Structure formats: C-alpha cells, structure tokens
C-alpha cells in the first residue's frame, strides 16, 4: 500500500465520520470531500461538485490523482458512479448500479433473497391495484407492511395495523401515486416482530468483514413514536448480540448474499448493510442498503481499531480483502461502545428553517468534554463566517466509552455543548438496547 489522495462523496454526518476515520489512516494523503459540509471543511478540502455530477467527479479524481473514491449516499450509486469510475480506470469503493439494485429496488431485493434462501418476511409484489386489493382481502386480519419498490428517502415503508389501513396505503401508492414512480410497484409483506439491528459488512466481491452491529432510532420521538426520520441516534455494538448471533447473521445472510451476487455476475463490492429483525426464529432481513448507514457509521467507525480503515476500503475496491476476511469478527468485538445523538432542526422531518446560527461550546484546547467525543456535522454550512444550520439533521454528537451506559450519558453531555434555535433531539437513545440487555 502507498499513500494516496482520497475523495469522499457526500455531505452528511456519515461522510464527516468517513472522512474523520480515513484522515487517521497512515495511507491518507490529501483528503477531499465533494461537496462536504462545514465539518468536513475543517479536516479536508471541500470540493464544490454535487454527488450526482459524475463526469465532473471523474475529472476531479484524474486531475488530483485520487487513489480511492469512497461513495456515501445511494443516489450516485443508483446513477452508476461506480460503473463510470471503473470505466475511467479510477479506483472506487461502492457497488455498481446493478449490484445497488439490492437497495434501489425492493422487489429485486426480495426476489434475490428468495433465490439465495436468505431469511426475510413473506411477501408478494404488485403493480396492479385490483390484484393487490384482491390479495389483501384474502389475508387474515393482522398487521402487515406495504412498501414502495423504489427509493423513497426512508418514507417508503408503511406498517399497517389493520387491513383498512393497508387498503388506504395501496390506494395512495398505486392510484394516487403519492410517491410517484417509486411507488408504482409495491410489496405486501408479513409483519415481523422483534428488535431491529443493523449489520454492516465491508465486501470485496467475494469475501466480507462484519463491522460492529448497531441500532438506529428511526422515529422522531421518544419511545419510537412519531414520524419516521432518516435516524435520530444510534448505538454500537448491540449489547445483547452475541457471537452465535453474528455467526447466524454471517452464515444465513452475508455468505449467501455475496455468493449469489457473484453467481449472477454482479459481485458486491462496497458496504452491504442488512437491516435485520431479530425474531424468535433468528435474524430476518427487512431491507438491504448498499452503503454505510447514517447515523450508524458515526457510532461504528469510532470502534474500528487495530486495522487501518482506509486500507480495508482500498482492499475491498481491489477485490482483495483476502486474509483479513478470515477474521470476520475482528471488528465485531470492540472493547468500547459508542452512542450518538442526532441534533435536528425544529420541524424535521417536515419543513424547517435553514441558516440559523449554531453555537459550539468547545473548550479552547479543542476538546468537547473531559471524555473526548466527536460532534460530526451533517446539515451545516458557513455563511458570512458564521456556522449555520443547513439541513434537517444538523449535527451528530458521538461518544465512545468502555461501557454503553456511559457512552449514552456522555453523548448527551456532548449534545448539550451545541445550541441553535429550535434544536431538537430524542432523549432515549440507547434505552431500548440497555433495557433489552
Ligand atoms: P425498510 O424501509 O424496509 O427498512 O422499512 C422501514 C421500517 O419499517 C423498518 O425499519 C421497520 O421498522 C419497519 N418494517 C419494515 N418491514 C417490516 C416488517 N416486515 N415487519 C415489521 N416492521 C417492518
Ligand atoms: N440509518 C438508516 C439508513 O442509513 O438507511
């Protein structure tokens, strides 16, 4: 391995955390983030190119001798950023558009899981309103889930307590087209009971390395109430997931997923994220994502120690995770736990103001608290020299500590170092995991 310049594509908390981790690598030369945010500007050079301006990103990578490009969000993956970089002979971490179908088309993912015998909820796919309603009428009266096929920014899954509710959702998606083309195909799915866990693995096309498990908190309010968001906080690792569970997750999900993707001629290279329901019958996949999770990345990366993270990414891109993948639990057994609290704009996930001034209570020596911690930026910008809000999820206060309970309480101390008008956060991040264990 040689020192290399690195380009991270994206502008959220996930990308700030990726850049922060990559910057610590001994192989990291110049670090760029496109387009980045006010936080990435402190540790890297922000490049004013949008995530979907693929030809411009390739040109930038060539001009600046970028040794590895790391893609954060799903949209450029769907748009073929990896295919186009590879065609231009530029090294890039992430799946091709075809492999990204695991996230970008839920019906593809469900058919794939059936083919690979990966445990998932029972389901049926529909394009036609009458057929969907006919099927619904035959189902027993119990909760079920309706999902839009396409990308819907986390708003495409509807948990319905009754068949009447489900009928309304089918009507909205297939007749009223409330999610436009993303909802032209729908999935009617069995409701699974259990706790949700995110399992992420670095994949090189045939081997994989499981990262510490994590748990997101997707609802806006405490007690998992209120609307769904992009994620309001996370913890890692999930304290009640043991080695046996990791083996199950590895054997029943990641191994067949990588094998069947390779057999289909679309090997998966990048970060494969399995959103799992841990049911009484074992782990079942709710969804695949083809990228790092946000805010999961913010709690996972502080725990990845003892291995050079940039080297892992570069090895994945080269298809040679090799001997590192023989230790699938190396990274899954950290001696620390981490928690993060998302600081959101008032009104999120609905409409909210931007451009509000942010005050950071950072100590003069640069430390946030006596115990360290990181405040990753998500929706932030600098306007006229002032740090301001620029998105729904504004900042992510992250703390790693030897025990989860301390990580949680100190993440909250850290969260309170930040102030901006209307700032909102959940007060119960980590409680579910602590109660369960
Ligand atoms: P998805 O977009 O598929 O991850 O779904 C979003 C959320 O809906 C998940 O995080 C779960 O909380 C919930 N969900 C999705 N599918 C199911 C299911 N089959 N059973 C229970 N809850 C589900
Ligand atoms: N935390 C959920 C996601 O990244 O999709």
Structure write-up:
The structure is a single chain. The protein is an alpha+beta fold and 437 residues long. The protein has 4 domains: 4-96, Rossmann fold (3-Layer(aba) Sandwich); 128-184, 2-Layer Sandwich (Dna Ligase, domain 1); 195-326, D-amino Acid Aminotransferase, Chain A, domain 1; 337-436, Alpha-Beta Complex (Glycinamide Ribonucleotide Synthetase, Chain A, domain 4). Helix content is 29%, strand content 28%. It contains 14 helices and 24 strands. The protein has helices at 13-23, 40-43, 54-63, 74-78, 81-87, 101-104, 106-115, 129-138, 163-175, 243-263, 296-300, 309-317, 404-415, 431-436; strands spanning 4-10, 28-35, 45-46, 66-71, 92-93, 123-126, 144-148, 157-160, 186-190, 195-204, 208-210, 215-216, 219-221, 225-228, 233-236, 269-279, 282-289, 337-344, 359-360, 374-377, 380-383, 386-389, 393-401, 418-419. A 5-stranded parallel beta sheet has the order 3-2-1-4-5, with helices on both faces. It has a 5-stranded antiparallel beta sheet with strand order 12-15-18-23-20. Strands 6-9-7-8 form a 4-stranded antiparallel beta sheet, sandwiched between helices. α2 (40-43) links the parallel β2 and β3. α8 (129-138) runs antiparallel to α9 (163-175). The longest helix has 21 residues, at 243-263. The protein is globular and about 65 Å long. The site of adenosine monophosphate has 15 residues, from β7, β8, β9 and β17.
